[in-house]
User: Fold this.
Amino acid sequence: MSAELRLAVLISGQGSNLRALIDATAADDFPAKIVMVISNKDDAPGLKHAEAADISTLIISRNTCSNHADFEAEMTKAMEHHNVHLVCLAGFMTLLSNHFVTHWYNRIINIHPSLLPAFKGLDVHERAINAGVKFTGCTVHYVRFKMDTGPIIIQAITPVITGDKADSLATRVLKQEHIIYPLAVKWIAEGRILMDGERVIVSGAEPPMGVLINPEQCL
Ligand code: GRF
Assistant:
């Protein structure tokens, strides 16, 4: 992998993960840099993070393209123009076609706010609370054809606390997202990701730190 991996970050909303990636990549020794941010919404609040960091932004709305294929073709053209190596979906609320995923195969990653394969899709925190799980978390994975599927690079665990509402849980999960997304990018840039079929092995990853039990009062 090149010394400096060139990233495109695709957003639709707040862009807090974009912000985490901007902060991480600002370090001199970080082996990747964001060369462009694409938003499919012209009013995405996250765009301000890109502008503040002087990163080139592009707004491509599905509505201004005649069809979904054109929309994706425009994104690919822009990213290839910027010589993008890795596409980072960060709250990009548009389904991507098999054609697009094939074009960027193993060069497109996503962050999802659950411990995949549990709770794919939307309203994940509400669904996790209603299901009564004691742990949830977040996942960074390579993108495959079906939504929220693909080889898992890294996950972080967040306990579900009595009285949690979707908002409170989302806030704690997001904090973990901001840690693991830059870490996944760093590992990819360092060439530490090995694929065993559809399983990711991270070379040099630390052994697990221990067993987690929640609620901890049971101990
Ligand atoms: C995050 O929870 C991410 O996991 C999901 O969409 C949300 C985006 O948040 N895919 P932000 O725009 O990065 O703040």
